[in-house]
Amino acid sequence: MFLIGVLLLAGGLYTAIQLGFVRYEMTGGALIPSFQVGSEDAHYERIERARAEQAKSAPPAPVETAAAAAPVANAAPVATAAAASYPAPYWFDYRGPGRDGVYSETPILTQWPAGGLAQVWRTPVGGGHASMTVANGKVFTIEQRRNQEVVAAYDLATGRELWANSWNARFSESMGGDGPRATPVWNSGRVYALGGAGDLYAIDAANGKTVWFRNVLTDAGAPNLQWGTSATPLILEDRVIAVSGRSVLAYAKGDGAILWKSQEDGGAYAAPVPATLAGVRQVVATMAKRVIGVNPADGKLLWEFPWVTEYDVNSAEPLLVSENRFVISSGYDHGAALVEVARGGSGLEAKQIWFSKAMKAKFNAPVFHQGHVYGLDEGILACMDAETGKRKWKGGRYGYGQVLLASGHLVIVTEDGRVALVKATPESHQEVASFQALDGKTWNNPALAHGKLLVRNQTELACYRIAP
User: Fold this and answer.
1) What are 222-279's pLDDT values in tens digits?
2) Domain map (residue ranges) of the chain
3) Angle (nearest 5°) at CA 234 between 400 and 406
4) In CATH terms, is domain 39-465 a member of 1.20.58.1560?
5) pLDDT for 375-394, tens place per residue?
6) Can you tell me the distance from the alpha carbon of 418 to that of 312, in angstroms, rounded to the nearest whole number?
7) CB of 178 within 8 A of CB of 127?
8) For the whole model, what pTM was predicted?
9) How far apart are CA 112 and CA 304, in angstroms?
């Protein structure tokens, strides 16, 4: 009887999936399905109803009037006069202004109310694993809505959708789920967004209109990656740097003209990172089987470091830990390495200082604080000494979520949608607080801007007050 019951249950679940009443995807840690009740169409209809209700009411007046924040090291160009009532753009890039997951614009609350942080707003959104960027009172992200990829701008104060730019595209795969992965970035009044099928758009941040368009896979003559085009473009001076399925490409920021194409060995999923190593300004890009440094002016290869992982999946960004050194980490039981770039007889050379199994970051980039690396080691939080690669502690099962650093604490969004606050200390794992911020699988990186915490997954985007 038990076997018959199991078979009937499995048959019913299969039928529900086929009819669209139940959706399933895989979790990050193992081939364990995650089921979501409700059809995809019903969710899209929920988004459309919410936007229709917003359209009936008058748009809100600008409210962000705080004084401009102090400049940061990798600051974007100064905002235009039209945005003078807003704080200076801060979290305009993927994982923050340094692409390192560090928030230092304002202090954050390090003692949270029993019920968690105060919610400012919440709104339904489309699918995908992109994060958010913020500039001039707008929150930018990219979503999957039906068979279109949509770059949308939301009002930071209210969550109201201000504009949406959409095109026909749908990247789909059952393990990670449908939708775009890379995060739109803001620079000089434009948003640069990369879709899951390689579509690269430059969009006017004020009104959502397309300025120019390319496809990085077509330009590189490359097929898409198994898990989709995921590497958030890097805006460096007058160019847009993108990693395709095969190469690193540079486009003119103004009109999208191809400036150069470099390498032919297969792309990966991690975003390129700007760095000055051995006194040389460069772009550090993670490819399928190596980490490379290229000259942003012409794409010339400056150095390379072999980094071969199972399935060629390198998804976590390199983490700068000193003037000439960075930590690279990958999952699938691979590990981490400290790499030093220095001048040699024939130019720049990269060498391994140590290799360690203490940090195996799958698609969850770690952060660096006071000589230590903090990150999710195959879903479990760990602290590693950056000088030696030795683990200081490991504890706290947060799944394949994401980690940021602020006010000497780790702000962790867990795979099941909780937000946790953990002290960034090498002494031991010390969780201070946590609360349920979202429901369902949450792989998207959070964002921090102007004292607000933004979190999203494939169904919702929410804003919480995290400033004291």
Assistant:
1) 999 999 999 999 999 999 999 999 999 999 999 999 999 999 999 899 999 999 999 9
2) 1-38, 39-465
3) 50
4) no
5) 999 999 999 999 999 999 99
6) 30
7) yes
8) 0.90
9) 44
